[in-house]
Automatic annotation (TrEMBL):
Protein name: Zinc finger MYND domain-containing protein 10
MF GO annotations: zinc ion binding
Subcellular location: Apical cell membrane; Cytoplasm, Cytoskeleton, Microtubule organizing center, Centrosome; Dynein axonemal particle
Primary residence: membrane
Domain of life the protein comes from: Eukaryota
Family the entry assigns: Belongs to the ZMYND10 family.
């Protein structure tokens, strides 16, 4: 993951993400995984992810396109210890 960080600003963002406990976009409980496409939404599990997919899909399409076009590797952070 760190091999793709090319600036102090990027490193700062990664550290901030690691230090914050994200909450589920659907139920607001502690989240352990995030959207694999856009990396912007966090979820506590598959059930919550599926429950808000119709609302998230439009933003996900836009954000995922921006991530792919930027050429910058995004850290795929998972807080699930398994």
């Amino acid at each position: 993951m760190l091999q793709h960080i090319t600036s102090v600003a990027q490193l700062t963002l990664v550290v901030q993400e690691l230090m914050e406990q994200p909450t589920c976009a659907a139920c607001k409980k502690a989240a352990v995984q995030r959207c694999s496409r856009c990396k912007s939404e966090w979820y506590c599990g598959r059930e919550c992810q599926v429950s808000v997919w119709k609302m998230h899909k439009g933003a996900c399409d836009i954000l995922a396109g921006k991530v792919e076009k930027s050429g910058v590797a995004q850290a795929d952070i998972s807080l699930d210890p398994t």
